[in-house]
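FORM 7B - TANDEM STRUCTURE REPORT

SECTION 1: FIRST PROTEIN
SEQUENCE AND TOKENS:
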Amino acid sequence: MNFRILAAPVRPHGRIVALMAATALSAALLVPAAQAQQPAAPAPAAPKAAPKAAPKAAPKAAPAAPAPAAQAPAAGAPPAAAAGQQPPQDQQIQLIYAPWTKFCLKGQEANAKQVCFTGKDGRIESGQPVIAAVIIEPEGEPKKILRVTLPLGMQLVHGTRIIVDGNPPQQAPYVICFQNGCMSDYEATPELIANMKKGQNLVVQAINSNGAPLTLPLPLNTEFAKAYDGPPTDPKVFEENSKKLQEELQKRAEEQRKKLEGAGGATPAPANPAAK
């Protein structure tokens, strides 16, 4: 398994360190080369929806986001729905989840600080990652970060939105895009972490390239609290579990392909969750 560390500015007076790990937090977080500040474009990794109307209303207060979904689309965004035209439906995708996992890493440099990560991802049956969330805790830093990663092809102007059960939603802009996804950062305040510990779902929302709202839940239950408060997982054990999960997903995708071929159907493109 490969680990890469991305240092990115979060505030004018500080920098955070973000891990991108393979498999359980992988492809959505692990990236071979940067493509920062790319405009949203339809890409195989981005979920799509058929309607071409503007997105439904998002929260009234949108911190830092250039244009909240509740307002008229900015330049380059889809036009508003015509009279009598149905607005785009909120798209939900059936996902397979890795468990919440905590691990800590320390760089090879002298005086390197330890960074701990507690994260989870969701994938479609082909193994393609669609959503990932990770809490990043650099040693000695007063602020913690909740980083969510979505596929390329989202409308960047709208940013992302997170909701934990019935708590007030939060909205944040995308901070950077890489080949395997775009990231949005939230401050992981004690209140947010407490809500996640006792909550049922962390819901991530975004607007895809067709202007349709996309809702992606990450189950919390008691699993998040156990992982967050517990000891870190041994990296070797983490790698083994990640490999098993990937093999299982590949097996399911192959079985589905054979089933469709046997029924005389066309083989679906495994990397496009928009087919749902």
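SECTION 2: SECOND PROTEIN
SEQUENCE AND TOKENS:
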Amino acid sequence: MINEDNQRKGECKSDEEIVPESVPDKGFWLQNQNLSKCLKLVENDKIIGTSCTSPTPPDMLWIWTNRTERLLMNVKTLECMERQSFDNGKVSLEPCTVTIRWQRMTCTKEQYGIKIRWKEVRDPFLHLDNNFDVISKENGNQLWKSNERNLCDANITYAGTE
């Protein structure tokens, strides 16, 4: 659908109408190597660690947006991870905005996996606690893996971010 400004305008689909096979192949799952759990969206904005499934449903798929100010966006909601405080803080999904510093992240390839951190002073880590809640943690330092071989380099240009 095209609006009056000649821009594409999408139509919203209910969860029941989403066909997993139609999800872009650029989405990837993220699995915590310490606890062997994949990240999944539950409720409206809560992210937890749970058993990984195949095929991967949209609420468990993620994409990196942009190349310089990277945001981690959920494929189902098209919202980005945002930490609520520095250490042991809740992580939720919020509308993507590169100007919000608590959404900007970095990805570092390590020998046995990747590390994901928020991009700022003292850089807290993306962390899965023992209750399988996703939090930001100063000394989290957990390794993650994905089905995307070059995860730290994978990104798409998403026009919805500011």
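SECTION 3: OBSERVATIONS ON SECOND PROTEIN
The chain has one domain: 28-146.
The mean pLDDT is 80.

SECTION 4: SIGNATURE
Preparer initials: ____
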